[in-house]
Design goal:
2 strands; mainly alpha
Length: 133
Amino acid sequence: MPFLRYDDDWRWTGPGLPEYLDHYRQCQSRHAATTPQARIPVERITGEVILVAGGDDRMWDSLGAARAIDGARERAGRATTVITHPQAGHRCVLPGEAALPPSPRHAHGGHPKADVALGAAAWPAIRRALALH
């Protein structure tokens, strides 16, 4: 299966814990020719698609990906629910889940309260979609 190639030569040079957002973008740029083959054809998904993305995700561009998926589905005439929070990071905390402690290895971005708020905002759409099946 095609995938976005990982650059082994990338090294985190910033202060603090590694943030992989820049690495992800570097890989997209450096391997632009293979990126289209690695794309999932989301416009062909017939079921409901719910995208939950933190606006301060430091692991990868979840908000950019959500917007791209939403755009592709919209062009195909398919609806998508996009739920985001500008201060949320990589971890979305759904109602009833305990927030995880900060990672000692990676920067996930966001703020714990925003991660909880994102999960609370997403939960009704998730429950609605699950009830359909």
